[in-house]
Amino acid sequence: MPKHSKRYLEAKKLVDRTKYYDLDEAIELVKKTATAKFDETIELHVQTGIDYRKPEQHIRGTIVLPHGTGKEVRVLVFAKGEKAKEALEAGADYVGAEDLVEKIEKEGFLDFDVAIATPDMMRIIGRLGKVLGPRGLMPSPKSGTVTQEVAEAVKEFKKGRIEIRTDKTGNIHIPVGKRSFDNEKLKENIIAAIKQIMQMKPAGVKGHFIKKVVLSSTMGPGIKLDLQSLLRE
Questions:
Q1: Coil, strand, or helix at residue 155?
Q2: Distance CA 41, CA 69 (A)
Q3: b/e for 202-211, b at 16 or more Cβ within 10 A?
Q4: Which of 196, 118, 203 is nearest to 154 (CA)?
Q5: Which of 131, 179, 213, 216 gives 20 to 30 Å between its CA and that of 41?
Q6: What is the pTM of this model?
Q7: What is the CATH number of the domain that holds 131?
């Protein structure tokens, strides 16, 4: 068992492990337990009822948080010519083609959070699959990161669009803001995230799609949310 810090154990005492908290109470509590010296990220952990053995039930897509995550999003775009110019004008941090592929391959350059590509670039970046795939950075039509509308995609990811996917246990982990966000903004982000995830329910899922939702800060303990009250919001 990993050893937890004294600060974490103190924060854990504030949380009733048997209780399912309503959202307002959970937000108050998650801020109280976020006692690190930096502005901790507030995270939402969603346990789904998907069967991970069935690829058609895997969830991968994007959702939009009305107030963003509070994190500066570094966007890289694989594009040429006019599309490269559009991406730069929209605020992309890195734009290129073969030169960027080489930089990632040879220098291990991974200093970005989202990679977007125009469809014609996919043949040259296919070989980056082994590097970008495991990190969730490989452009994909499913996540809206392979597109001709590069300028729009750059602006959306900068503003608060985030990519989500189920992990091998069928869980989804999403940053929904920072400790410094006011309660109302966190609440709106959380409700927006849950509603958009609900709409992604794969057709073959039996029983409850969302089984459990937990809120936590980067360094703090998990706080279970009352799902019924959350879905009524």
A1: helix
A2: 8
A3: beebeeebbe
A4: 118
A5: 131
A6: 0.80
A7: 3.40.50.790
Cα torsion 98, 102, 104, 107 to 10°: value is: -150
**Mean pLDDT of successive 10-residue segments in the chain (233 residues)?**
63 81 94 90 94 89 92 94 97 96 94 96 93 90 91 92 89 95 96 94 88 92 87 70
Q: What is the number of domains present in the chain?
A: 2
Whether 196 maps to a domain, the answer reads yes
Look up the CATH number of the domain holding residue 190: 3.30.190.20
- With both helix axes pointing from N to C terminus, report the angle between 6-13 and 23-33 in degrees, rounded to the nearest 10: 150
3-state secondary structure of 73: coil
Report how far residue 148's alpha carbon sits from residue 174's, in angstroms, rounded to the nearest whole number. 27
Residue 7 lies in a domain: no
pLDDT computed for residue 204 by the predictor: 87
Domain membership of residue 29 as a residue range: 16-68+161-232
Quick one: 188 and 178 in the same domain? yes
CA distance 120 to 84: 12
Is residue 8 domain-resident?
no
CB 74 within 8 A of CB 112: yes
User: Is the distance from CB of 61 to CB of 142 less than 8 angstroms?
Assistant: yes
Residue 37: how many other CB atoms lie within 10 Å: 6
Predicted local distance difference test score (pLDDT) of residue 105:
93
User: Which of 159, 178, 205 is a domain's end point?
Assistant: 159
* Same domain flag for 153 and 92: yes
